[in-house]
Design goal:
6 helices, elongated, Four Helix Bundle (Hemerythrin (Met), subunit A), mainly alpha, about 170 residues
Amino acid sequence: MTTTMSKTTTQTNSTQPISITPEVMLAYWQDERLQTRQLIESFPEDHLFFYSMDGMKPFSELAWEIISMSIPAAIGITSGHWQPTGSFSRSWNTIAKPLNKKDLLTRWDDTTEEINRLWENMPIERLNEKQTVFGLGSGPVYSFVLRYIDQEIQHRCQGILYLKSLSLK
């Protein structure tokens, strides 16, 4: 007895592009931020601020970079006002670097709340607008959101590497 199985595929003839709403994009970003926050929490405090490999920065420095870039990025994403290159931590961020895990997590949470606040007023078409971002390049705003999220993931991967080297992850 021979049995044949047929493969069924569905095709749509829609000419409508797939669109990601600002709410979906924010949920994706905040999910990535939650994963990074959980990684910060998993670090022993002494290793968070002082451990590194091969001359790389400690994970607390990487987390601070993410925090320092998040508000300028969120302002640019939501309003179109992009600060000049290199101004992330010098111009708007007058808050001192945290010196312990509790303060780092507090700054992380405050930044998350500010991103959410800024995002609330973003027009739905904003993500598709073309802009020059931080004087570095032009393209649709959504592409820069994705690049920014990729940067955070890269920083988090370095933190995971640190924990694995310590046999902690």
